[in-house]
UniProtKB/TrEMBL annotation:
<protein>
    <submittedName>
        <fullName>ChrR Cupin-like domain protein</fullName>
    </submittedName>
</protein>
<dbReference type="Pfam" id="PF12973">
    <property type="entry name" value="Cupin_7"/>
</dbReference>
<dbReference type="InterPro" id="IPR011051">
    <property type="entry name" value="RmlC_Cupin_sf"/>
</dbReference>
<dbReference type="InterPro" id="IPR014710">
    <property type="entry name" value="RmlC-like_jellyroll"/>
</dbReference>
<dbReference type="InterPro" id="IPR025979">
    <property type="entry name" value="ChrR-like_cupin_dom"/>
</dbReference>
<feature type="domain" description="ChrR-like cupin">
    <location>
        <begin position="29"/>
        <end position="122"/>
    </location>
</feature>
Amino acid sequence: MKNDDTARMPYQLPFPTDAQEEIVIPNAVSEDERLWVPQAENVWFRPLCLNRSQGYWMNLLKVRKAGVLSRHRHPQPVHGFVLKGRWHYLEHDWVAEEGGYVYEPPGETHTLVVPDDVEEMITYFQVNGVMCYVDPWGKVQGYEDVFTKIDLCRKHFAEVGLGENYVEQFIR
């Protein structure tokens, strides 16, 4: 650790001209329901970063229902960190619990289940690429990508009075 006069001096050179601005969200797990975008009945997401140039998104997923949430396939990796509650995949014998981290490798297909005794689950996810929703035999039923997430945010934020441009702060 440096103890000279420059140790607490901020970086003195200009940032790159074309560098994007950082995103800082002081209260990511907000109690303001307007900030949570409905995804399905009793399922919402809170956008944190919607990176259209690299095709990934980072969000909080909040679920207030027990049962099967979705069956989906990822062609790219997904990272998750459980903030509240717990969940598991039908295809695995582990349970993602509060404080736990999950890495989902590319090519994985799984069925997300929230147990009956969980009133609320909140997990931070970084999803790269696309999520393909599939039936038990792999037939595609729908998909999500960063652009469908942006569209959902625009529509929701306009409906709750924040304005469709509210989503711009999360887009990079």
